[in-house]
């Protein structure tokens, strides 16, 4: 019986209905064959649980398949491990291709004979194409008579039932909203470079499998209070489409906190995860800006090369103006990072921006260069530092400002808060940052950045080979987000990053691997997805390649890692480094040294390493990694990114 998008499923016999997970067969009980239920029969008369066409009768008579008008493939499996009885206790009353009504007799089974063989008589009713056809199945456990309605299957919509259909942005947005639990289940939504990051009231209401299998969605993951839907390059368009349907969310700058009852991590792990999540979350909105600035600086260096006729003079108004555009993002980085971090903390972003402005105030920099020491306390000398181009001191300052604001709003009357909350917060946090936290954190950050650059440079080909081979594994586990701020700090503090030069090769190699799949495959969908993912990887974003194809054909991912290992080896041998943030082929200009345009060593290292990465990864994939006869694995369940709340 069908009502709206619901199909009633009948008890196939008299007996006790039990949940599928309680049945004795490990394959059935885990849902491997699809959703369903078990029934312990009290007699041997078996009826059709649904109406439909008989699509299969097992030679050993122990199983009968029925396909409903709605396309559900329902399997009635009589007994556990009864295939070995070769049909002796069963009599089938229907024929292949005949049509049966729900409740019609289809078979009999000799329960005593089955029990005499020490076998389980449980009848399994399974919807074997559950993932494709139904949103869920409600089962009523307990005693039942033959023909009683004991379950309800909820059909998917046409879009859900055909995950290969490419949806428009608006259609995909509607699909996503529905399958994360509906509008009423969404607290807030933000996005990063490839993912929609939902803050849900109840994550258990989200349909992971349905979302994962829809074209246009690469993966989903649960991580520390966020429900992340991996879209890839088109994330901004999908985000805009979702927000168009959820206009009420635009009024909220920061996500509301959620309680994750399933977060059973120990306090140290949780604290560390939240710290990493806060740092990387604060940096995520900034990455695009500093990447663009790095490209501009590289292009300027290219245009001043004597080998190209020095198309631009470093003292010309055009060069100085465009250079200022590029430098501004780095020079005022504390202002931008402070604003971003405050929005993430749901505190006042203007207050954080003012504190960042104080740290980069030109007069403060001049004083620091002239006086060096602010004051002395015994043997301790408190020095002026230049906080332009810095990241970590401002992130801590934003956190301190948020805590200060929260405390002041509790103790101050409402009529004093408008003026005195920002006044006290700016004075207190700016002073603490300038005198205590800033020097400590900035010194440590600079030390780490210098050490990493030295380590990569000193290790030469060994470091390049190892980092090149394994860096993209960090992307799978979400750990690369812990490297991003370090690379940004290296470039902001020292003007270069040898580590980022090696990382660049890993992006190119994964792009070459997925491109080989696109070229070799004769499947239209594979070509379309592969080419799009390759372009994305060559532009510095590998997630569409990794989650769309490479990890689902693990040899393709391995081929990419082989290519990047060789690319990293070349980069290490040539001691290549990057002077900008943007990786991939699109970041070629980041390998020109803006301080010494005639130094082309790093650019040559980039060209050779990229060529090696592309050739090795492409050939490895073509020869060993992929063919159209391979079976695509399930979308990989990605490890949680630390502290994404």
UniProtKB/TrEMBL annotation:
PANTHER family named in the record: PHOSPHOTRANSFERASE SYSTEM TRANSPORT PROTEIN, PTS SYSTEM ARBUTIN-, CELLOBIOSE-, AND SALICIN-SPECIFIC EIIBC COMPONENT-RELATED
Cellular localisation: Cell membrane
Name of protein: PTS system sucrose-specific EIIBCA component
Molecular function as annotated in GO: kinase activity; protein-N(PI)-phosphohistidine-sugar phosphotransferase activity; protein-phosphocysteine-trehalose phosphotransferase system transporter activity
Signal peptide start-end: none
Residue stretches making up the PTS EIIA type-1 domain: 25-129
TM region(s), chain numbering: 275-296, 316-337, 349-368, 380-402, 414-441, 461-487, 499-519, 531-549, 556-583, 603-625
Claim: Disulfide bond is one of the keywords in the record: no
Broad enzyme group: transferase
Biological process terms in GO annotation: phosphoenolpyruvate-dependent sugar phosphotransferase system; trehalose transport
E.C. designation(s): 2.7.1.211
Gene Ontology CC annotation, any one: plasma membrane
Domain PTS EIIB type-1: 170-252
Chief location bin: membrane
Keyword Metal-binding: no
Pfam families tied to this protein: PTS_EIIA_1, PTS_EIIB, PTS_EIIC
């Amino acid at each position: 019986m069908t009502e709206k998008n619901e199909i009633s499923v009948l008890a196939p016999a008299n007996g006790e209905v039990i949940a599928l997970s309680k049945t004795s067969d490990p394959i059935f009980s885990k849902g491997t064959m699809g959703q369903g239920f078990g029934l312990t029969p009290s007699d041997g008369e078996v009826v059709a649980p649904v109406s439909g066409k008989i699509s299969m009768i097992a030679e050993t008579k122990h199983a009968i398949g029925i396909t409903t008008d709605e396309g559900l493939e329902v399997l009635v499996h009589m007994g556990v491990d009864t295939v070995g009885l070769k049909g002796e206790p069963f009599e089938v009353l229907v024929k292949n291709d005949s049509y049966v009504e729900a409740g019609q007799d289809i078979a009999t089974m000799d329960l005593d004979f089955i029990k005499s063989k020490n076998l389980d008589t449980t009848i399994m009713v399974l919807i074997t194409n559950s993932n494709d056809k139904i949103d869920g199945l409600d089962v009523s456990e307990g005693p039942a008579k033959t023909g009683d309605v004991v379950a309800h299957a909820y059909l998917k919509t046409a879009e859900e039932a055909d995950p290969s259909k490419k949806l428009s942005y608006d259609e995909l947005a509607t699909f996503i909203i529905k399958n994360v639990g509906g509008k009423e289940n969404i607290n807030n939504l933000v996005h990063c470079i490839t993912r929609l990051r939902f803050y849900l009231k109840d994550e258990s209401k989200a349909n992971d499998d349905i979302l994962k299998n829809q074209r246009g969605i690469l993966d989903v993951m649960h991580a520390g209070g966020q429900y992340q839907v991996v879209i890839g390059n088109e994330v901004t368009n999908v985000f805009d489409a979702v927000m168009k349907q959820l206009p009420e969310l635009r009024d909220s700058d920061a996500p509301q906190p959620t309680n994750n009852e399933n977060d059973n991590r120990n306090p140290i792990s949780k604290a560390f995860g939240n710290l990493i999540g806060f740092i990387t979350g604060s940096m995520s909105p900034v990455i695009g800006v500093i990447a663009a600035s790095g490209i501009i600086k590289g292009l300027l260096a290219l245009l001043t090369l004597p080998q190209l006729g020095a198309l631009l003079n470093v003292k010309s108004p055009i060069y100085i103006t465009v250079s200022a555009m590029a430098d501004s993002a780095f020079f005022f980085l504390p202002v931008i990072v402070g604003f971003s971090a405050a929005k993430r903390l749901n505190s006042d972003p203007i207050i954080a921006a003012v504190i960042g402005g104080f740290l980069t105030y030109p007069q403060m920099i001049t004083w620091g260069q002239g006086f060096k020491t602010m004051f002395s306390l015994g043997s301790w000398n408190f020095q002026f530092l230049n906080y332009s181009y810095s990241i970590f001191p401002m992130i801590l300052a934003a956190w301190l400002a948020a805590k200060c604001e929260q405390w002041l709003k509790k103790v101050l009357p409402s009529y004093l808060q408008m003026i005195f909350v920002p006044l006290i917060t700016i004075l207190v946090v700016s002073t603490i940052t300038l005198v205590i936290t800033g020097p400590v954190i900035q010194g440590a950050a600079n030390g780490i950045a210098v050490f990493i650059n030295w380590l990569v440079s000193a290790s030469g080909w060994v470091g390049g080979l190892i980092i090149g081979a394994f860096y993209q594994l960090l992307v799978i586990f979400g750990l690369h987000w812990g490297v991003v701020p370090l690379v940004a700090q290296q470039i902001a503090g020292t003007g270069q990053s040898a580590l980022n030069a090696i990382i660049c090769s890993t992006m190119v190699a994964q792009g070459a691997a997925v491109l080989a799949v696109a070229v070799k495959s004769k499947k239209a969908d594979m070509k379309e997805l592969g080419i799009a993912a390759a372009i994305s990887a060559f532009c510095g974003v590998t997630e569409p390649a990794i989650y769309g194809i490479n990890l689902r054909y693990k040899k393709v991912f391995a081929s990419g890692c082989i290519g990047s290992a060789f690319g990293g080896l070349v980069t290490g041998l040539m001691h290549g480094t990057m002077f900008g943030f943007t990786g991939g082929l699109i970041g070629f200009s980041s390998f020109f040294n803006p301080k010494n345009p005639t130094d082309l060593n790093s650019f040559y290292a980039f060209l050779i390493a990229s060529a090696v990465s592309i050739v090795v990864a492409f050939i490895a994939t073509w020869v060993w990694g992929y063919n159209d006869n391979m079976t695509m694995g399930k979308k990989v369940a990605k490890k949680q990114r630390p502290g994404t709340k």
